[in-house]
């Protein structure tokens, strides 16, 4: 046996060692020899046995020890053999795959598509939802105040993924009350994040900037890398100091990480700030947006030059709160004690809330950008479906490959290679190809994840790259699961041929067998493709609804022009009013401008509320989500922005300060205030209840107040600018030709500078800029889901084509016989295409069913589009059937060209 | 057994490896070799010898195979592996160094202070 090479011994398992038998045999030999020697030396047999036993020592314990050691040796050997076998199998599979590079590339690319999409999406979702922001000590302990929104009527009940809560935001007076109601030693902090221009000039880069209050840094566990953080004295709201703490990133990029940075001054939003500290990396604040600049909230004072303390305003900014888990009770008590009035519902008290509060990974501000996150989560589902389609495809390709190799496999089985081993070989094949796919997928994911970050969360500052060890691990695990999953059933099927039959018949006939499993894969592919394409179709329809929504303004023809000024230089609020008529005249004189109007606040950029009283009535009608807004406008306003006068008149130049106070209302107000009556001549009191009566002189068309996609009605009132004593200037509304903005903007900027001088900062924007920003999520959703649908369609097409052409390459003989018996070419074509289309039709029907059932998942993201839109479903079904016909055309063409003589002779 | 010497831990391993450095042997032959080589100066419990053999097999210093003894019986033969050969060289060297050191001390005379 010594001459048998190691590799061969594996095959002869009969001689596999048994530790117990071996040890006993070895010891028996020892005693036999020893006793024989002693007896040969003249000792009696019994005495010899006694001596041998004595010389040996404690037989039982030695025997036990030897068996333990041998058992371990045997286990080692088994493991080594397994690995040797595995290595051998891998080498064998690699050699086989090298012979069919086309197959490897097709499968790897198909899988790479699915894996890459998933890796890219996972990278995004991981950063958004699964990981706390870095540098925060005990992130699970940090809580924030959320408020509970009572569900809307008819809305589905809240779930973990659609909770009815939003992060509560406070004005400074509310924050102060809450803080005052808390025990002194309770850690509590507030912050407000915006952007600040870092450096001088209007080209300065915008960086995320946090205005902080309370124990912000200590509570989050941030440490200074240099310098120090703010002292309580420096954070006193009444005594503004221009101090700043910067991020390590900014410190490295601007100061090369030099300690000299401390004490230097930098310009932020036109103000000079002194750097007092650097936050140690990787801390970048509790939100996904990486903050680079921290200043005490008191630094904001420059914003509001007004008589009352600036920080007493209740609409100025949205302070978010932070506290630790152990003080939840105290914070809730304090909120009650301070009689904190939340906009909706109440502070979240229950365990679901704890989970929500406990997370600091909430990526977006309430009511803002949610749609992008919604898109991201839906995309996760979509990418999973693409992976499934790719899996089905790869399963089919592996199956076809197994069929082609049937003869080889039969021979191996006949030679006694175990079926388990064959399955292992085929699984390793699937695994290797899948890992190739994973490699390509990671490259694709790097690109894809970056693209997704830019598309979905364009405004965010990302602190880290999209691909890290978590994404790599995720992709590898997913590829192993995918590879094994896709290879399992093909491996079982192809390793189970009817041995005798296959060997007796030629390989060609042995391979032909209609596979229910294969049809099943095709059906699944078609069904999933229908689901994805339906999703894409719905988003495109929905985008169309949004784009064609009538907002009430001629949004694509309007330009907003306003003047800002550099506060460092001086306070020009007086100059602004004095020179305003000149500014207006200069802009009016610019050729190409049709009309210019003036308004207090640009439409859809803000709202102004005045108290409203109706004589003889206790209260003013309003809805849960709307209250009347007042716009102060010049006479040309309606004709400039595209609002129509429905009845009565608009505002005229005669409605001056001395004339009778008048008011124009929109249709909604007319309907709500005076149902069934004419509003003309009615009286409305604005502001103080004792003010003079304003007479309604006209009704104008409704226009949106906030958003393109409006959820509530607009209650709008307009008063003449000349009759509002506070309005001595405003925003210019400029009407011009569509697309004229680029040409007009420089002229408007020049007019601004010419009027006011170099200190003026012209702010000129096309209204479409703001509207486009609102349309962005809708466009993005449509684009991403269309891309996903297209991917699915391509993968399905490849799958159908390869499967159907494979099936018919195996039916050459049968078709040859048919043709020889006189079948017409078009019959054969009908046969081939009919076969393919029948299978796909089943898939389409299932897919339509799935789409109808799953429509509610995307319903919330659609606008004026039913998730069961019949047009979309029909179009998608027809598209997929056409693709199926397309996939059958080449195989059918090949089938017709079969020469019966050749096909039959090939027997 | 009055002249029995206590063997240091690991010394038995060196002796076994040395025995196998000549040719492959079964356990009983190794026991005989060591007994004769030491001129009976120390007796080793045969159980300890087998424990040492199996332990070294686990460490892959020796490999075993069933074969036929010169008397025609089935016996388990041990042979040295390349790893075992290296181990023998290393152990022998350190043993000799030890002996030299002990001998040096035993033969030394204190220097005058």
Topology record:
The complex is a heterodimer of chains A (907) and B (113).
Chain A: H1 6-9, H2 19-40, H3 45-56, H4 59-98, H5 101-130, E1 142-143, E2 146-148, E3 165-167, H6 172-181, E4 188-197, E5 206-214, H7 216-220, E6 224-227, E7 243-247, H8 248-255, E8 265-268, E9 271-279, E10 293-296, E11 320-324, H9 328-337, H10 351-358, H11 370-404, H12 406-414, H13 419-456, H14 469-494, H15 499-504, H16 507-511, H17 516-547, E12 558-565, H18 573-578, H19 580-588, E13 593-599, E14 612-613, E15 629-633, H20 637-641, E16 645-648, E17 662-666, H21 667-673, E18 683-686, E19 694-700, E20 716-720, E21 731-736, H22 741-756, E22 760-766, H23 767-809, H24 812-820, H25 825-854, H26 856-859, H27 870-896, H28 900-905
Parallel strand pairs in A: 5-10, 7-9, 15-20, 17-19
Antiparallel strand pairs in A: 1-11, 2-3, 4-5, 4-11, 6-9, 7-10, 8-9, 12-21, 12-22, 13-21, 14-18, 16-19, 17-20, 18-19
Helix pairs in contact in A: 2-3, 2-4, 4-13, 5-11, 5-13, 5-14, 6-9, 11-14, 11-17, 11-23, 13-14, 17-23, 17-25, 17-27, 19-22, 23-27, 25-27
Chain B: H1 11-22, E1 25-26, H2 27-37, H3 46-58, E2 62-68, E3 74-80, H4 82-107
Helix pairs in contact in B: 1-2, 1-4, 2-3
Structure description:
The complex is a heterodimer of chains A (907) and B (113). With 907 residues, chain A is α+β, with helices and mostly antiparallel strands. Chain A folds into four domains: 17-98; 140-360, no CATH class; 376-548 and 774-905, no CATH class; 555-768, no CATH class. In chain A, the strands form four sheets. In chain A, strands 1, 4, 5, 6, 7, 8, 9, 10 and 11 form a nine-stranded mixed sheet that branches. In chain A, strands 14, 15, 16, 17, 18, 19 and 20 form a seven-stranded mixed sheet that branches. In chain A, helix 25 (825-854) packs antiparallel against helix 27. Residues 1-15, 151-163, 303-307, 348-369 and 506-513 of chain A have low confidence and may be disordered. Chain B has one domain (11-106): Arc Repressor Mutant, subunit A (Orthogonal Bundle). Chain B has four helices and three strands. In chain B, helix 1 crosses helix 2, helix 1 (11-22) crosses helix 4 and helix 2 (27-37) packs across helix 3 (46-58). The model of chain B is unreliable at 1-6 (pLDDT under 50).
């Amino acid at each position: 046996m010594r001459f048998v090479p190691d590799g061969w011994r594996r095959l002869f398992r009969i001689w596999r060692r048994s530790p117990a038998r071996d040890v006993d045999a070895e010891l028996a030999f020892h005693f036999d020899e020893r006793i024989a020697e002693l007896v040969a030396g003249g000792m009696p047999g019994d005495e010899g046995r006694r001596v041998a036993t004595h010389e040996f020592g404690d037989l039982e314990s030695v025997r036990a020890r030897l068996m333990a050691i041998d058992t371990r040796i045997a286990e080692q050997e088994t493991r080594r053999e397994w690995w040797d076998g595995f290595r051998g199998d891998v080498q064998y599979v690699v050699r086989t795959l090298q012979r069919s590079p086309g197959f490897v590339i097709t499968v790897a690319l198909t899988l790479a598509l699915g894996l890459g999409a998933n890796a890219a999406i996972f990278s995004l979702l991981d950063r958004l939802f699964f990981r706390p922001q870095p540098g925060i000590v005990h992130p699970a302990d940090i809580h924030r105040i959320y408020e509970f929104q009572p569900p809307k009527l008819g809305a589905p009940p809240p779930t973990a993924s659609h909770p009815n809560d939003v992060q509560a935001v406070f004005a400074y007076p509310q924050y102060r009350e809450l803080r005052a109601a808390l025990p002194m030693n309770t850690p509590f902090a507030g912050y407000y994040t915006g952007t600040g221009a870092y450096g001088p000039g209007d080209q300065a880069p915008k960086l995320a900037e946090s205005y902080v209050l309370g124990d912000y840094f200590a509570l989050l566990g941030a440490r200074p890398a240099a310098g120090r953080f703010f002292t309580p004295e420096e954070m006193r709201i009444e005594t503004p100091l221009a101090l700043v703490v910067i991020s390590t990133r900014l410190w490295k990029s601007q100061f090369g990480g030099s300690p000299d940075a401390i004490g230097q001054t930098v310009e932020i939003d036109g103000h000079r700030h002194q750097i007092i500290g650097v936050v140690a990396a990787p801390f970048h604040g509790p939100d996904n947006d990486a903050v680079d600049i921290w200043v005490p909230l008191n630094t904001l004072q420059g914003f509001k030059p007004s008589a009352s303390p600036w920080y007493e305003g209740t609409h100025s900014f949205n302070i978010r709160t932070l506290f630790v888990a152990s003080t939840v009770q105290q914070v809730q008590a304090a909120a009650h004690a301070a009689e904190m009035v939340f906009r909706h519902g109440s502070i979240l008290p229950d365990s679901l809330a704890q989970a929500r509060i406990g997370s600091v990974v909430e990526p977006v501000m309430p009511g803002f950008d949610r749609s992008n996150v919604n898109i991201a989560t839906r995309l996760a589902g979509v990418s999973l479906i693409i992976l499934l389609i790719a899996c089905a495809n790869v399963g089919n390709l592996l199956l076809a490959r197994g069929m082609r190799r049937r003869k080889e496999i039969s021979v191996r089985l006949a030679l006694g290679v175990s079926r388990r081993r064959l399955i292992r070989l085929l699984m390793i094949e699937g695994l290797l190809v899948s890992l190739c796919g994973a490699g390509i997928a990671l490259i694709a994911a790097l690109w894809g994840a970056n693209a997704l970050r830019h598309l979905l969360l364009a405004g965010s500052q990302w602190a880290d790259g999209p691909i890290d060890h978590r994404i790599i691990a995720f992709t590898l695990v997913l590829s192993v699961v995918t590879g094994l999953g896709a290879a399992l059933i093909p491996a079982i099927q192809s390793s189970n041929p009817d041995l005798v039959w296959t060997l007796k018949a030629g390989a060609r006939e042995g391979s032909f067998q209609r596979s229910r499993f294969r049809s099943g894969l095709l059906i699944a592919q078609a069904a999933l493709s229908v689901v994805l394409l339906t999703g894409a179709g719905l988003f495109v329809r929905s985008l169309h609804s949004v784009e064609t929504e009538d907002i009430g303004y001629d949004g694509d023809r309007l330009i907003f022009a306003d003047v800002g000024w550099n506060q460092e230089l001086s306070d020009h609020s007086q100059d602004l009013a004095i020179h305003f008529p000149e500014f207006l005249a200069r802009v009016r004189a610019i050729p190409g401008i049709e009309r210019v109007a003036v308004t207090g606040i640009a439409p859809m950029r803000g709202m102004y509320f005045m108290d409203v009283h109706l004589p003889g009535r206790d209260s003013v009608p309003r809805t849960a989500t709307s209250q009347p807004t007042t716009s102060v406008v010049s006479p040309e306003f309606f004709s400039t922005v595209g609002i129509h006068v429905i009845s009565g008149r608009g505002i005229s130049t005669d409605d001056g300060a001395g004339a009778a106070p008048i008011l124009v209302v929109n249709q909604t107000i007319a309907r709500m205030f005076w149902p069934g009556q004419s509003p003309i001549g009615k009286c409305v009191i604005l502001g103080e209840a004792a003010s003079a009566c304003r007479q309604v002189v006209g009704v104008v068309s409704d226009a949106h107040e906030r958003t393109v996609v409006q959820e509530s009605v607009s209650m709008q009132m307009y008063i003449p600018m000349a009759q509002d004593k506070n309005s001595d200037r405003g925003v210019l509304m400029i009407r011009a030709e569509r697309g004229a903005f680029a040409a007009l903007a420089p002229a408007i900027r020049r007019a601004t500078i010419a009027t006011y001088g170099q200190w003026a900062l012209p702010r000129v924007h096309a209204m479409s800029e703001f509207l486009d920003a609102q349309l962005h999520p809708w466009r993005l959703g449509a684009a991403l889901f269309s891309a996903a649908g297209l991917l699915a369609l391509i993968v399905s097409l490849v799958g159908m084509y390869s499967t159907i052409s494979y099936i018919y390459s195996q039916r050459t003989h049968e078709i040859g016989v048919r043709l020889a018996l006189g079948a017409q070419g078009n019959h054969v074509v009908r046969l081939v295409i009919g076969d393919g289309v029948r299978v796909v039709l089943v898939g389409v029907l299932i897919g339509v069913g799935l789409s109808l059932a799953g429509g509610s998942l995307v319903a919330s993201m659609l606008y004026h589009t039913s998730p069961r839109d019949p047009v979309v479903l029909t179009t998608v079904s027809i598209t997929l059937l056409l693709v199926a016909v397309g996939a059958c055309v080449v195989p059918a063409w090949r089938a017709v060209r079969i020469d019966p003589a050749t096909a039959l002779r090939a027997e | 057994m009055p002249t029995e010497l206590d063997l240091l831990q690991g010394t038995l391993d060196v002796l076994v490896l040395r025995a196998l450095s000549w040719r492959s042997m079964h356990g009983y032959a190794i026991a005989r070799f060591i007994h004769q080589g030491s001129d009976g100066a120390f007796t080793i419990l045969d159980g300890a010898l087998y424990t040492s053999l199996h332990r070294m097999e686990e460490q892959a210093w020796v490999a075993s195979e069933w074969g036929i003894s010169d008397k025609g019986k089935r016996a388990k033969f041990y042979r040295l592996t390349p790893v075992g050969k290296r181990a023998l060289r290393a152990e022998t060297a350190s043993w000799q160094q030890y002996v030299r050191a002990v001998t040096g001390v035993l033969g030394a005379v204190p220097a005058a202070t």
